[in-house]
Amino acid sequence: MTPTTTDAFTISRRELLRAGTATASMPAMAGMPALAAAAPAATAPTASPLTLQVNGRSHQLVLDNRTTLLDALREHLHLTGTKKGCDHGQCGACTVIVDGRRINACLTLAVMHEGAQVSTIEGLGAPGRLHPMQAAFVKHDGYQCGYCTPGQICSAVGMLDEIAQGVPSHVSDDLTASPQPSAAEFQERMSGNLCRCGAYSNIVEAISEVAGVKA
Ligand code: FES
Ligand code: FES
């Protein structure tokens, strides 16, 4: 190895590279203890006892505080009618009705709904005693694979209540007047419920029948 000569000392090329590598890593190594000291100590997840009212029944649970309402329904209460699509608030498959309002169960924590009245597709109706919206979806073929259907039906039921209560939408002509049920209102208000099978026109027909308007 050819030595590299300087005024102060003589060093081989290999020694120079070793020294450079060691020097480059020094700041990172020096910072490590500080970073470790700054990191918060890991704490065990906290669980809370809570009572959920679902479809008229009371359920005592002890859940990790991070459990979503969707996972509480599906994994703990085994109410698997409510579907998990995206788990990110983008598809509406997990729509349930809480205290009369439709919400995405994947975007809310179960512990936030202690004492609230939760309705899922199982609570709306069952074979032999279908909710009018369920019957209309069957009549108008408002589904193909059916995965989005529980969310579509819960959303449709909540949506008609919103119109009845006078809640305006982006397509309401007059924001000060009571909105009227129409296909345009249904399409706008149901836009958070996606259907990958594309059953949209039949879904609007089903909702229109329940609302008593022309599709
Ligand atoms: S699963 Fe909740 S919005 Fe998609
Ligand atoms: S019926 Fe298949 S996703 Fe809507």
Which series of helices and strands comes N to C? EEHEEHEEEHHHHH
Strand composition percent: 15-25%
N/C terminus separation:
87 Å
Helix content: 25-40%
Widest β-sheet, arrangement of strands: 4-3-7-5-6
Q: Pick out the low-confidence regions.
A: 1-9, 21-31
Number of alpha- plus pi-helical segments: 7
The rough form would be described as globular
Main sheet properties = 5 strands, mixed
Features:
five-stranded mixed beta sheet; 38% helix; disordered N terminus; single chain; 215 residues; two-stranded antiparallel sheet; alpha+beta; binds FE2/S2 (inorganic) cluster; globular; 7 strands
Helices, strands, pairings?
Elements: E1 3-5, E2 10-12, H1 13-38, E3 47-54, E4 57-64, H2 69-76, E5 95-98, E6 101-104, E7 117-119, H3 121-124, H4 132-139, H5 149-164, H6 183-189, H7 200-211
Parallel strand pairs: 3-7
Antiparallel strand pairs: 1-2, 3-4, 5-6, 5-7
Helix pairs in contact: 4-7
The structure holds FE2/S2 (inorganic) cluster (2 copies).
One FE2/S2 (inorganic) cluster binds next to loops.
